[in-house]
Amino acid sequence: MKKILVTGGAGYIGSHTVVELVEAGYEPVIIDNFSNTEERSLQGIADILGGDVTCHRIDCTDTAALREVFEKETDIEGVIHFAAFKAVGESVDEPLKYYHNNVGSLVALLQVMKEFNVNKLVFSSSCTVYGIPAELPVTEQTPVQKANSPYGNTKKICEEILTDLATSGSDMYTTALRYFNPIGAHPSAKIGELPLGVPNNLVPFITQTAAGIREQLTIFGNDYDTPDGTCIRDYVHVVDLAKAHVVAIERLLSGKAGNIEFFNVGTGTGNTVLEAVQAFERATGEKLNYKIGPRRPGDVPKIFADVTKATEELGFKTTTTLEEAMKSAWDWQMHLKETAK
Ligand code: UDP
Question: How far is the CA of 181 from the centre of ligand 1 (A)?
């Protein structure tokens, strides 16, 4: 079995990817410092798979600790790098924390990968690199823009580091996946998103409101130039997104990938915030308490992916509808409620 190191493998997208890797016949090994996840995600992975996945509790910025993992885990064939902070607002308040962690962990990882002759990497990027795009849907050729938060800038800088490495004559092969909006949870409801404190993202806020943890959802603005005035996003189910990592690592290991490649990973369909709320209500039968509030500063009015490249070159396709994704998010919320009792 091919061994794949998954940094941030106990996190939201990481945990789902670990499950998909095992189901595709790989042996994932997790690195996580549990700064933004909980032990229960490992238990959830084990429950789904019927056995534990190896996990090293280290910080990915710690070069010496990374080295120890590579020494112990011989035969690592590729790495999927999720470990990063992701709260846009927090990154504005604490930029150094974001540059140190998100950029520092990539640099440390690349150095150690080089020392151990591991040269296949899938990198977690984001559609945030497109800023407010001038054209829709966005393709991988759509220009990358100046980031509007330190978080977004770390993704842009990491892509630049990987591009510089690719053009330096190094034999590192990287595939950067630019995620649109990941939502939902594993159909087993044993793993899912574990937001710390008040969620910033739409779907955990919706499920927590319906569960009575939050009183009301505020929809940030209904005066945008969209059919119902609310912002448009491309909501991709986390299991579909996880599978994109499996096909990306497969392509890297097969030797077909270029030194640096970028892929949009979304559904190709844009939905408004109101459509997302309605899909949640239809999928769950729950009535959501929401109101319209002012715009959230820094919000992109509309963005959705052109996924032609990922479809044609990776064989990527999504299979989960928005309603199914909402239902899975709700089932996960219910699981959290039951296990909190
Ligand atoms: N949103 C909202 N209320 C919330 C959280 C999000 O109306 O409490 C909207 C937000 O304005 C955006 C969409 O939901 O249009 C997705 O927001 P999220 O923060 O999940 O993702 P991002 O803005 O990073 O794409």
Answer: 9
Answer whether 128 contacts ligand 1 (Cβ < 6 A): no
Which of 85, 179, 230, 273 to probe ligand 1 with, by most ligand atoms within 8 A of CB?
Answer: 273
Tell me the three-class secondary structure of the chain, residue by residue. Answer: CCEEEEECCCCHHHHHHHHHHHHCCCEEEEECCCCCCCCHHHHHHHHHHCCCCCEECCCCCCHHHHHHHHHHCCCEEEEEECCCCCCHHHHHHCHHHHHHHHHHHHHHHHHHHHHCCCCEEEEEEEHHHHCCCCCCCECCCCCCCCCCCHHHHHHHHHHHHHHHHHHCCCCCEEEEEEECEEECCCCCCCCCCCCCCCCCCHHHHHHHHHCCCCCCEEEECCCCCCCCCCCEECEEEHHHHHHHHHHHHHHHHCCCCCCEEEEEECCCCCEEHHHHHHHHHHHHCCCCCEEEECCCCCCCCECCECCHHHHHHHCCCCCCCHHHHHHHHHHHHHHHHHHHC
Ligand 1 binding pocket includes 219 (Cβ within 6 Å)? yes
pLDDT single digits (tens) 100-122: 999 999 999 999 999 999 999 99
63-113 tens-digit pLDDT: 999 999 999 999 999 999 999 999 999 999 999 999 999 999 999 999 999
303 near 180, Cβ under 8 Å?
yes
Report the catalytic residues.
151
Q: Which residues of the chain have pLDDT under 50?
A: none
Residue 223: what pLDDT? 98
d(CA 219, ligand 1 centre) in Å: 8
First to last CA, the chain: 39
Nearest CA to ligand 1 atom 16: 202
Residue identifier of the C-alpha nearest atom 7 of ligand 1:
219
- Cβ of 296 less than 6 Å from ligand 1: yes
The residues with which 126 forms a beta bridge, in sequence order, are 179
